[in-house]
Amino acid sequence: MERLQKVLARAGVASRRASEELILAGRVRVNGRVVTELGTKVDAHKDRVEVDGRRLVAEKPVYYLVHKPREMVTTLDDPEGRPTIGELLQHIPERVVPVGRLDYHTSGALLVTNDGDMVDSLLRPRSGVPKVYAVKFQGHLDVPELDALRNGVVLDDGYKTKPAEVFVLRQEQNNSWAQITLTEGKNRQIHRMGDAIGHRVMRLARQSFAGLSVERLRPGEYRELTRDELQQLKKNFLNPYRRARGDAKAE
Which is the catalytic residue, given 103, 117, 142, 157? Predict the structure, then answer.
């Protein structure tokens, strides 16, 4: 027997936290009865679990690395009719969700999975997941500006960013390309960091996420993680998350 929210998360319905919200909202039924108590335990193999009237079917966990193209939203559908990551991944039979998001105009590494625990472990603020970006800035960056990015800059809301790895890739006539590695993920953070030092971000691509590189993937392509990549993800992020949460068993 397992907690209902854990069963929902493992089946790829949503992250564990989002699954708790589904339960509290009365959108989950167990054996025909609406359940709103988070401590409810179920047997995923014997009990009939439904979310919004659809029966839950247990899926094996799957993990894909996607090279998200520019001009695509990181959602499964879009009311404005823009291209979505859901359309790109429509041939994946499992119900996968993105781990975090990339802006509409940002391309690069995006992990998708139906493993709710993995999603939670990578998105929690203390996880320190490294995210490597190639950034095109307007103008040339001088040493004090580079040092400011490395040591932390104050954003428009007063938040000071954590230290980051920053080095210049190349200088063009009117622009600079830099590589920036972040271990946090504030909304439009790199754009706002550029604004803080007076250099607008003109182009942004995420080269890797949690050590997973899209170097060999073209925009719009995706692949399953290798066994070694998955083991490394579990070692670095999932298992520490489970231990911190007090799970009796971490893989």
Answer: 103
Integer CA distances (angstroms), 130 to 4, 118, 171, 199, 233, in order: 31, 15, 25, 23, 12
* Domain residue limits at 16: 2-55
Q: Whole-angstrom Cα distance, residue 115 to residue 206?
A: 22
Separation of alpha carbons 112 and 102, rounded Å: 12
pTM of the model: 0.80
CATH number, domain with residue 47: 3.10.290.10
- What are the beta bridge partners of residue 28? 51
pLDDT digits (tens, 9 = 90+) for 20-54: 999 999 999 999 999 999 989 998 778 889 999 88
- 142 classed as catalytic: no
Count CB atoms within 10 A of the CB of residue 62. Answer: 17
Domain tally, the chain: 3
Please state the separation of Cα 110 from the chain's center in Å. 7
Strand (E) or helix (H) holding 230: helix 227-233
Token output for 185: 């993920």
